[in-house]
Automatic annotation (TrEMBL):
<dbReference type="InterPro" id="IPR011989">
    <property type="entry name" value="ARM-like"/>
</dbReference>
<dbReference type="InterPro" id="IPR016024">
    <property type="entry name" value="ARM-type_fold"/>
</dbReference>
<protein>
    <recommendedName>
        <fullName>LRRK2 ARM repeat domain-containing protein</fullName>
    </recommendedName>
</protein>
<keyword id="KW-0677">Repeat</keyword>
<dbReference type="GO" id="GO:0005739">
    <property type="term" value="C:mitochondrion"/>
</dbReference>
<dbReference type="InterPro" id="IPR009003">
    <property type="entry name" value="Peptidase_S1_PA"/>
</dbReference>
<dbReference type="InterPro" id="IPR056597">
    <property type="entry name" value="ARM_LRRK2"/>
</dbReference>
<dbReference type="Pfam" id="PF23744">
    <property type="entry name" value="ARM_LRRK2"/>
</dbReference>
<dbReference type="InterPro" id="IPR000225">
    <property type="entry name" value="Armadillo"/>
</dbReference>
<dbReference type="GO" id="GO:0005737">
    <property type="term" value="C:cytoplasm"/>
</dbReference>
<feature type="domain" description="LRRK2 ARM repeat">
    <location>
        <begin position="277"/>
        <end position="443"/>
    </location>
</feature>
Length: 536
C-alpha cells in the first residue's frame, strides 16, 4: 500500500532528502549522504548536484551542495550493489539527527519474507512520459498548496529475500533510487530502488544495509561514518580466526584510538603463532605494528606488546628484511627503550630483537648514528638489570656482532665503562657456561683493537675500571674462566685470543706474565687453537 504524504500530515523524517530530478538520499553521518550510484553517477557528475532537506514540512527547506571532492565512494562491483557515500555541506543541518547505519552485527535487523517495511522515496519522472507516474506520482496537495510535495511514504511487503536483496512489488514504471527502507522499529534495513533492466524489465528491490556495511568494510570505508562503537562490538563482528587481513581491515575501518589500540594488541598476540608469521608480515602486519609503536609510544602496555611481536618476527631473516625499513624503524625500537628504561620486559625483548637482526648470515646494516645509540642504550640496560642473565647474554652477544662488523665499536664500549660491568657480571656468574662463552668472546674482540686496549690500560676513569689494577683483574678473570671451563673449546679459544691480544700491550704483557697460572691457561687452550686453525 502507499501512504500519501502532504505538508499537513507528513511524518517528520528530516534525515531523508531529495536530490532534485535524481532521487533520494539519507544523512547517515554529519556531512555524509547515503544514496544509490544511479542517483549521483560519478564524482565529477555529482559535483553540481544539491540535496534538499525539510521539504513538505513547516521548516524552511535547506539546500546543500554535494562535496565529492571531500569524500566520494561508489560501489563498482557487484552490479546489484547500487550504493554511494558522498560528502555534503553541513551548514543548516546541525539539528538533523543522522539515520543510524548499523556497523556491527548486534545492530543488524533481520528481514524475512512477508515483513512489511517502510520506504521513503522521491519518485523520479517516468522513463516513458517524462512526467510523474499517475498511480504513485499524483501526491495529494496540502490545503492551499498549488503543487504536490515530492515525498512519498510506502508500506510494502517483502516478497522474496535472496542473499543481499529484498524484492518488492513493482509499481508500474516509476523510477526510484537511493530510497531508505526501514523496519517497523525504525531501523534502517536497506536502500530501495526501482529501475528498468534490459533483460529483466522493471525490478523493485532493496539492497540490504548489512550487505552495504560488509561491502564498505571490505573496501576499508567504514571510517567515513562517524559512529561510537566499542572494541568488543567491532571485534565480535569482524574478526575471523587467524585472518591477518581482517585484523588490518579493522584498523583501517575504525579509526578511534581506543579501537586501534585494542586491535593492535590482538595483532601482536597473533605474532606469537609461528605458523602465520609469514602471512602477518606479507600482509602488512609488521608495518602496522611499527606504526603503532610510533603512535602509542607513551603507552607502556602497547609498546611492550609491539616489541615482543617484533622479537617474534626477528627469528626469520627474510621476514625482518621485509618489515624493517632501516634506521627509522630501528630508531623506534630504541625510542621505546629510552622511553621506558625501568621496564625489564621491554628492555629484554628489545635487546633480543636487536641481537637477532644483526646476527646470522644476512645481517642488517645499522646506520652509524643508530648503531652508536643502540650500543649506548643496550649498555645502560645491562647495567640497570644486572640480575637478568638472559638479557646479559644477548646484550653482550649483540655487542659482539657489532664489534665483528666494526672494531671501532670496541672503543665506544670501553669508553662507556662496559668492561667494569663485565668483570662484576663474570665474577658473579662464572658458573654459567653459556654466559661465559659470550663474555669471553667479547673480551677476545676487545683485545683485537689496540686502541681499545690502550684506552682501558691508560684510563684513570674509575667508571671504566681500567688502569693497571683493572688489567690485573681482567687477566685473573680470563685465567680463572679458562681453567674452570677447560672442556669448552669456545671459551678456551676466545680466552687465548684475549690473553694474546692484551699481551701485545707492554703494560698488559707484564701483568699477564706475572700471573701464576697464565701459562697453564694458555697451555690447555692449545688443542682448541690448533683445531680451530686446521678448520680455517
Amino acid at each position: 500500500m502507499a501512504t500519501i504524504l502532504t505538508t499537513s500530515n507528513v511524518h517528520n523524517i528530516p534525515a531523508v532528502c531529495r536530490i532534485p530530478e535524481k532521487g533520494t538520499a539519507t544523512l547517515v553521518s554529519p556531512g555524509m549522504l547515503l544514496t544509490s550510484t544511479h542517483v549521483v553517477g560519478t564524482a565529477d557528475a555529482c559535483a553540481s548536484l544539491t540535496a534538499i532537506f525539510f521539504e513538505g514540512t513547516k521548516k524552511k527547506p535547506v539546500e546543500v551542495k554535494l562535496l565529492p571532492q571531500k569524500y566520494f565512494f561508489a560501489a563498482a562491483y557487484p552490479e546489484y550493489m547500487d550504493y554511494c557515500l558522498v560528502a555534503c555541506e553541513e551548514a543548516g543541518l546541525l539539528n538533523v539527527v543522522p539515520v543510524t547505519i548499523p556497523l556491527t552485527k548486534d545492530q543488524w535487523a533481520p528481514v524475512t519474507e512477508g515483513d512489511i517495511i517502510l520506504v521513503v522515496q522521491h519518485p523520479a519522472e517516468s522513463s516513458d512520459s517524462g512526467k510523474a507516474d499517475p498511480e504513485v506520482g499524483d501526491i495529494a496537495p496540502a490545503a492551499g498548496s498549488a503543487d504536490p510535495p515530492l515525498v512519498m511514504k510506502r508500506f510494502v511487503e517483502v516478497l522474496r529475500h535472496r542473499d543481499d536483496l529484498f524484492y518488492l512489488k513493482t509499481t508500474r514504471d516509476v523510477r526510484t533510487a537511493g530510497c531508505p527502507a526501514f523496519n517497523d522499529r525504525g531501523q534502517l534495513i536497506g536502500l530501495q530502488s526501482q529501475v528498468r533492466h534490459p533483460r529483466t524489465g522493471i525490478v523493485n528491490h532493496v539492497v540490504s544495509i548489512t550487505a552495504i556495511v560488509k561491502h564498505l568494510f571490505a573496501n576499508k570505508q567504514l571510517w567515513s561514518i562517524n559512529r561510537n562503537q566499542t572494541f568488543e562490538e567491532v571485534w565480535n563482528t569482524w574478526y575471523v580466526k587467524n585472518d591477518i587481513t581482517r585484523i588490518l581491515s579493522i584498523t583501517a575501518n575504525f579509526k578511534s584510538r581506543a579501537i586501534t589500540r585494542e586491535t593492535i594488541l590482538k595483532l601482536c598476540e597473533h605474532a606469537a603463532q609461528r605458523e602465520i608469521l609469514n602471512t602477518l608480515v606479507r600482509e602488512g602486519g609488521a608495518q602496522a605494528i611499527l606504526n603503532a609503536l610510533d603512535i602509542f609510544i607513551d603507552d607502556e602496555e602497547v609498546v611492550f606488546a609491539c616489541i615482543k611481536a617484533l622479537w617474534n618476527i626477528s627469528f626469520s631473516e627474510e621476514l625482518i628484511r621485509l618489515c624493517l625499513g632501516g634506521g627509522k624503524s630501528l630508531g623506534m625500537i630504541l625510542d621505546a627503550m629510552e622511553k621506558f628504561p625501568k621496564n625489564e620486559q621491554i628492555a629484554e625483548h628489545a635487546t633480543l630483537f636487536l641481537h637477532n637482526i644483526c646476527s646470522g648470515n644476512d645481517k642488517l646494516d645499522f646506520e652509524r648514528d643508530v648503531e652508536e645509540r643502540a650500543l649506548t642504550l643496550v649498555h645502560s640496560t645491562l647495567r640497570t638489570f644486572k640480575g637478568t642473565v638472559m638479557l646479559q647474554k644477548f646484550g653482550f652477544a649483540f655487542f659482539n656482532s657489532l664489534i665483528a662488523t666494526n672494531l671501532r665499536n670496541a672503543e665506544i664500549l670501553v669508553g662507556q665503562g662496559v668492561i667494569a660491568h663485565l668483570v662484576r657480571l663474570a665474577q658473579e656468574r662464572k658458573d654459567n657456561v653459556l654466559l661465559m662463552e659470550v663474555v669471553m668472546r667479547f673480551l677476545g674482540f676487545i683485545a683485537q683493537n689496540p686502541r681499545a686496549v690502550n684506552m682501558y690500560v691508560t684510563s684513570r676513569d674509575v667508571g671504566m675500571g681500567g688502569g693497571s689494577k683493572g688489567v690485573s683483574v681482567i687477566t685473573g678473570l680470563l685465567v680463572d674462566i679458562m681453567l674452570k671451563h677447560k672442556d669448552v673449546d669456545r671459551i678456551l679459544l676466545d680466552g687465548s685470543q684475549a690473553l694474546w691480544g692484551f699481551g701485545n700491550d707492554v703494560a698488559c704483557r707484564a701483568v699477564i706474565l706475572q700471573h701464576p697460572r697464565a701459562f697453564e691457561a694458555l697451555r690447555i687452550s692449545l688443542p682448541a687453537v690448533i683445531s680451530h686453525s686446521k678448520v680455517l
